[in-house]
Amino acid sequence: MGGLAGVPAADEEYSAKDFTSDQEVRWCPGCGDYAVLAAVRGFLPELGIKRENTVFVSGIGCSARFPYYMNTYGMHSIHGRAPTIATGLATTRPDLSVWVVTGDGDGLSIGGNHLIHALRRNVNITVLLFNNRIYGLTKGQYSPTSDQGMVTKSTPAGSLDTPFNPVSLALGAEAGFVARTLDSDRAHLTETLRAAAQHRGSALVEIYQNCPIFNDGAFDVLKDADEKQRRLIQLRHGEPVTFGPEDERFGVVRDERGELRVAKLAEVDERDLVVHDAQRADTSHAFALSRLGGQDLDPTVTGVFRAVDRPTYDDQARQQLDEAAQQRPADLQQLLTGRDTWTI
Amino acid sequence: MGGLAGVPAADEEYSAKDFTSDQEVRWCPGCGDYAVLAAVRGFLPELGIKRENTVFVSGIGCSARFPYYMNTYGMHSIHGRAPTIATGLATTRPDLSVWVVTGDGDGLSIGGNHLIHALRRNVNITVLLFNNRIYGLTKGQYSPTSDQGMVTKSTPAGSLDTPFNPVSLALGAEAGFVARTLDSDRAHLTETLRAAAQHRGSALVEIYQNCPIFNDGAFDVLKDADEKQRRLIQLRHGEPVTFGPEDERFGVVRDERGELRVAKLAEVDERDLVVHDAQRADTSHAFALSRLGGQDLDPTVTGVFRAVDRPTYDDQARQQLDEAAQQRPADLQQLLTGRDTWTI
Amino acid sequence: MVATNGQRTESDPEGQQPDTLRKVNRVVIRFAGDSGDGMQLTGDRFTSEAAAFGNDLATLPNYPAEIRAPAGTLPGVSSFQLHFADYDILTPGDRPDVLVAMNPAALKANLGDLPAGATVVVNTDEFTKRNLKKVGYEQSPLETDELERFTVHRVAMSELTKGAVAETGLTRKEAERCKNMFALGLLSWMYHRPTDNTERFLREKFSGKPQVAEANLLAFRAGWNYGETTESFAVAYEVEPASLPEGTYRQVTGNLALAYGLVAAGQRSELPVFLGSYPITPASDVLHEMAKHKNFGVTTFQAEDEIAGVGAALGASFGGSLGVTTTSGPGLALKSETIGLAVALELPMLICDIQRGGPSTGLPTKTEQADLLQALYGRNGESPVPVLAPRSPADCFDIAMDAARIALTYRTPVLLLSDGATANGSEPWLIPDVSELPDLRVSFADSPNAPDGSEEFWPYQRDPRTLAREWAVPGTPGLEHRVGGLEKLDGKGSISYDPDNHDAMVRLRQRRIDGIEVPDVPVEDPDGDARVLVLGWGSSYGPIGAACRRLRARGMPVAQTHLRHLNPMPGNLGEVLRRYDRVVVPEMNMGQLAMLLRSRYLVDAQSYTKVAGLPFQAEELENVLSDVVQGVEL
Amino acid sequence: MVATNGQRTESDPEGQQPDTLRKVNRVVIRFAGDSGDGMQLTGDRFTSEAAAFGNDLATLPNYPAEIRAPAGTLPGVSSFQLHFADYDILTPGDRPDVLVAMNPAALKANLGDLPAGATVVVNTDEFTKRNLKKVGYEQSPLETDELERFTVHRVAMSELTKGAVAETGLTRKEAERCKNMFALGLLSWMYHRPTDNTERFLREKFSGKPQVAEANLLAFRAGWNYGETTESFAVAYEVEPASLPEGTYRQVTGNLALAYGLVAAGQRSELPVFLGSYPITPASDVLHEMAKHKNFGVTTFQAEDEIAGVGAALGASFGGSLGVTTTSGPGLALKSETIGLAVALELPMLICDIQRGGPSTGLPTKTEQADLLQALYGRNGESPVPVLAPRSPADCFDIAMDAARIALTYRTPVLLLSDGATANGSEPWLIPDVSELPDLRVSFADSPNAPDGSEEFWPYQRDPRTLAREWAVPGTPGLEHRVGGLEKLDGKGSISYDPDNHDAMVRLRQRRIDGIEVPDVPVEDPDGDARVLVLGWGSSYGPIGAACRRLRARGMPVAQTHLRHLNPMPGNLGEVLRRYDRVVVPEMNMGQLAMLLRSRYLVDAQSYTKVAGLPFQAEELENVLSDVVQGVEL
Ligand SMILES: Cc1ncc(C[n+]2csc(CCOP(=O)(O)OP(=O)(O)O)c2C)c(N)n1
Ligand SMILES: Cc1ncc(C[n+]2csc(CCOP(=O)(O)OP(=O)(O)O)c2C)c(N)n1
Ligand code: SF4
Ligand code: SF4
Ligand SMILES: [Mg+2]
Ligand SMILES: [Mg+2]
């Protein structure tokens, strides 16, 4: 069953414009959020579901303004809590396509617990995590994904803690679908969103997003044509994991100790290359890929790490309701009366 | 630097009795918490640190009563928040050995976010997670580690969500030290606590604990002599991962796809056995071990999954203070006066 | 029986005649034992028997915060008090006429509450040296004169039980666990109770374990027979059925009635009910109960914490369900930010707080009324919400329905304040006729509503009478809109930082809540000559009412009124308050309602407060009030 | 200059004489532009100049919630208002005498606040068709009669700036970004400001980018020279230094003063300070500032959320630090459960809430006073905490010190309520002599204290005067003990479910807070003949004071008093309130303090409320109060 099963099909063809609300977009010039917004607006029509059955729920942060700009139903809720609201909505409304928009602070700092529980619970929602590695809206404090040692308003002597790797965290939290993509690569972003939307269950899409004001250039190495080729791995299900420029291809192999590492393609046996399988039941494979280069973006693994189906929380919850209704009619008078009564 | 560096050494030899407070222990008869309490009381003297420099902080739950029974400093705080309190305490007091006692509800449900952040941040605290796979104190609702389908007070038709694997979750959250042990195996419990106490940084010890009242026998297969031999893996750093009864030994090997699996020792080449290395920088190894048998306890991996040193949050925070103090004297008058003044 | 508390037996006004079956009007029994002794179940069964017999009744369970404190210790004592009568009573009773003490700890912990002349039934088998020592008895109180003011029945319950169930082949330990049924049997005989229900109950409860069922039945009957045959119990008592209003009754606890009210609200509004909750004493049972009623379209969601519970409920409300969340004080604190969001979103939602002893973790299994101000003000900014409180266990049903009415009509989160005593206490409930329950149906917006004819949908366009905004649920074509926690332009609903709009919206939200229709408060002043008014809210209704009855019986006029709506307050309240020379407000807090009344009506309302984790006793209020009444009469 | 608001220029009482340098007593300037135009910096620099010159001053920044809303739009307008004078002033001014408008949006958004006769300086280069259209101007207001009531100076600031800095070789875009310094230069000339500080500041700020530093300096000087040389600016003004009390002054914002107060409290108590916080507007700057002072033993911890922030602070307090947490309303809501724990633990801790517009996310960058009742009551159970509020930016320092005194002396969490206007506003501060600051040293317990001579340590043993319990920090031999959120036995501190103990403990916690020593409240009633008292709290001090001055200047007697201690209230307050015929309580909420006063003192205090996200204007309060004063005179 796909992620959108149960959502009514559109009876018209939408364009990006149909998903554009009348609200003026208020991000800073050059903010990566614009690119994601454009990609989402452009991609939603292809899902072929009714616009009115689409809902965006966000927390608080720059990225959390997202729902205002979408001509769908939406809620700009409170900091960190969007997954909880989406859970209640998705559980009671199988006919909706429910999206959560969150940031690295919103989703991983204050909202970390809701995120990991939503993933483990496997509610049919798609979470877009805009990771700019900084608190944008509150003007530049470090976030749980900021580089260690980063000097920010709240860490003038440098931050101290090890950042989360959102993909690893999600996998450790039993997520069924985890992917990573980039604000600046519209095609890859769209492709990744497509896969996420098709997945039934909780899906996490980490989007590296540039904040030109408070953390400019955090992902510049992935935008520079040369560097990008040297660093960017795009996972493809069923294919060996290779990357790099034409003249110097790399591949991912497993070393003697069982760890993944990057090697020059020329120097390894093709048969030793790790073949990506997003559907493996054992999360270890996806996890190992998530550890290949991390905070330093060298390399940067993108694409769908894991896409494994299992029954969703909301489908099962509704099924329990249906079964109960079949077994016992909803006779309120009988319920209230119960069995031990007396009459005066 | 060991976990206890900075904590003053005891000038007397303690016994378990010295760590026993005058409070009557109030768990149900047969509760696994008794065994853990006895083990901790018995083990603390060997650390050789001053009793008064030991602090236990807990949240709320049956297990959270732990501090009352220890003749040390202690705080029985509120539900889920013990790691936050311990963080403030450990950061300001390098001379204390700070322990957190939590449950599968306290630490993974309401307190999940604090736990993963404490682990990533690497504050020098040791977290004992009493996992009885149930809410004890509130009388038997399912917890984030309960079996799927479990019928409890709050899930009369069976629970729906996938449980967390606390070890996987911790590893996904960048934990430097993660271990698992059993309430009923005093020797292993003690050994594991010893390793955790020696580790400098956040350490998580998951303890499988029986709740005879609301989830009796959850870990019985690990207590039955035969079953235990068949299922229980005790990781040892530097040794190949093998287990099983004398007459039918098993070993963990890596299959063609790179996944770990259990094989009959007789049927594999000894050289193909996975050798445990708790100190690997790449978390993938420990993570893969954590996926070997999970909720079904078949097999059950115990021992220290990962023990990797990295600078702790609190050491670095104090260092920043020291450095600042060396660079700039604490001249309050100068601070208040600042540079732009005028006199009337 | 020496009747207590001014109640006299009917057939034996002086309490002398040594009869075999004697009629009494009311009895208070307390079963007390170790947490592991099954006292709650025993009390519950006896309650069912009394209910089935047609008595009016009220109950008060009392148990420790530990799941099972060490056996035989004072902190491990669990008790269940039951008051049943042949007339309508108001409280679970101040002081037990009969105490069943299953061990020395139970005796010691409860002795202080007994009036002289009370009956004490003890399980002598547990009065061992070891057990006596555990609670600090040097010598057995059964052997000293400590109990001389009471009628004491010494029964070797453990041994008798073991003997009675020997034939079932249970182990001694298992056999002994049936001793609570022995006690129940004995008391059932003493009070002439019908036993069929209990026998049926035991068979069903242990239907999977016939051996255990049999043993419990045998123990129960052995207890009954023990009363019937031994010399020591010369007298049995009878409490006739009460003459309550006509109709069919059942017994309900507050939490059960609350759950039923929520289910009924869903049925009568024709909306799915979504309960997002996180377990916490004493609210968890509402979640447990609701989880059983999936066939009524009730979804229950045990969230990862309280914030997620209320968040999910709000999400469900946004989607067109009746979102509900249940909790106790510490959980309400955690939910406060999200309730503030619900205020800004103007969506219906019910938040039920079953209050317990505070502050902080406090006394989790005890009762208190100290969350009123938290309910009213525990959020950032001006965020008014309606607040209601049931006055008794059965009233929880009506309050839940009324809370749903307000939430749905006015599109607002509503706070319902129950408490531990109401939640776990029980009383007979006149089962309502479902067809006569209020109609709570709502209509969702289905078309554009912009007053400027623009064919837009304006989510903050309001009903001029209720000031409620339109509820347009996702999936409705053409009404796509966004809501959020930032201040919004009235009508249009877009984000607005305009100062005047903000001021207007703050006042509008206040006006909407202030304008909620709530019934006038009735005053009970039978002779119309009272100069003192007693006003309470929540679970103090029973003891206040009982105290007033006692005063009136003593010829002292006193008026009583009780608030079920705390916000907004009934329209006639100011006038009512000003009618009296003195207003006394008993509360199980430091005077929270009194503060509100004083501020709003500038009336010198006087607090009487007790914050001891226990309900008021009728007797203590009688004393307090009689002093006040005598004071004004001077 | 046409002076406004009843203030007349000294040298030119009728405002006619066309001088070249004219003296005025006070000026209100508002710099307004796009969020990207650097208006906050510009205002800040001008403020520094005024401060350095010795004027009294007060400021009011105002900026949008978006980091950077779309350029040129109304929501993107950012402004900074500054009031400076040659006497002690109380507010940032109601209405600007001068508006600097960097684009059409800035003009449109602020025009409504200008009094007739005000001066408007516009950057004509931004009045393009496109920009005009963005804000809905059909025709340029510079070409219509829309501005005819004002003196308008049209300056091509962008072009002039670009020309001035051309030599630096910056790109046109970079060059244009210096136009705010051009504006600053022009205004500095107009008001005869010293420029050294600004020049030094610019060199330091851009020390890493000498080209940019040079460009900004050139622009600044170009602005100055433009004033000096062009015909259109015929007049410059002078505001003489104010005659404030003698001493050395500096300028502080409320958040800076608060941070300094916390650092000073650590120094004077000789305790390490631990700030556990989570960023939130408008509190984040306190965290940022504190993070700079590690050399004072200040640890700052940016936690994963508000709950972790306060939890860590409490943990640090348990360990013997001065635990502090800073937040705004939504964060306070989240912290409430943990504050309740701190109440139960009786440990010192400071919780600073910088209030902002609510409910929910509300108006995050605007000011409000609507968290008072949340601060007092936003926790489960009876959990009293002291509450203090600064009355102005500089007062934050003293309030922080006093809050620390209370927390440390009485072993209690203390709530400090600042607000957005206080936090971001600034004023001159008479720098205190550190050696005269209060001594806040505490002594930790170091030996057994059991009154029964048992050589035990009883953590809840109390100081008979303050009722504070002993503070024994981990690491102290022999005093090992456990604390927690469950109710505990007074003295001994072990868990206690005893009803009487609970009641006693609830009352004891209340009595401890009620007994905190706070100074009597002073009343300002210069002639002693007032019949109306105005009472406020927090940041309304300035406008209330200014309004009172105006009334008195009009011969209308009015008394003013201001609460800095909200809980407990000053001992003389009841007596003060009863002295007057009328009590008026202006608040930026729906009447929260008024409610408390009415309830506590049964005084018919009247609310005047405004909840618009902006401070009161002196003028509006003048009108309100003059009506009241006239009313009582009748
Ligand atoms: C309860 C609460 N705490 C704090 C805040 C302040 N706040 C708003 S957004 C934010 C962090 C934003 O960071 P992120 O989620 O990374 O979003 P970004 O702005 O970078 O897109 C914070 C701390 C708040 N609004 N509410
Ligand atoms: C804020 C809050 N929410 C809920 C509770 C109720 N509560 C107490 S302990 C607990 C769960 C206990 O489960 P666990 O952590 O697994 O501990 P155990 O009792 O099993 O040892 C809950 C829900 C509470 N005390 N406080
Ligand atoms: S602050 Fe950063 S993330 Fe926020 S809108 Fe501006 S550029 Fe984007
Ligand atoms: S309920 Fe379970 S976990 Fe709690 S004390 Fe009893 S046996 Fe132990
Ligand atoms: Mg971010
Ligand atoms: Mg548990």
Quick structural overview:
The complex is a heterotetramer, with two copies of chain A (344 residues) and two copies of chain C (634 residues). Chain A contains ten helices and twelve strands. With 344 residues, chain A is of the alpha/beta class.
Range of helix content of chain A? 25-40%
Class computed from helices, strands and strand pairing of chain A: alpha/beta
CATH class of the domain at 2-218 and 311-319 in chain A: Alpha Beta
Note the overall shape of chain C. Answer: globular
Describe the structure in your own words.
The complex is a heterotetramer, with two copies of chain A (344 residues) and two copies of chain C (634 residues). Chain A is an alpha/beta fold and 344 residues long. In chain A, 28% of the residues lie in helices and 18% in strands. In chain A, the strands form two sheets. Chain A has an eight-stranded mixed beta sheet with strand order 2-1-3-4-6-5-11-7, with helices on both faces. In chain A, strands 8-9-10 form a three-stranded antiparallel beta sheet. Chain C has 20 helices and 22 strands. With 634 residues, chain C is α/β, with parallel strands linked by helices. Chain C is globular. In chain C, strands 11-10-12-13-15-14-20 form a seven-stranded mixed beta sheet, sandwiched between helices. In chain C, strands 3-4-2-5-6-7 form a six-stranded mixed beta sheet, sandwiched between helices. Chain C is 36% helix and 18% strand. The chains are: A alpha/beta (344), C alpha/beta (634). At the A-C interface, strand 1, strand 2, helix 2, helix 4 and helix 9 of A face helix 1, strand 9, helix 9, strand 11 and helix 11 of C. The structure holds thiamine diphosphate (2 copies), iron/sulfur cluster (SF4) (2 copies) and magnesium ion (2 copies). One thiamine diphosphate (TPP) sits between chains A (60-63, 79, 103-106, 130, 132, 134-138, 143) and D (278-280, 306, 330-331, 334, 361). One magnesium ion binds at residues 61, 103-105, 132, 134-136, 143 of chain B.
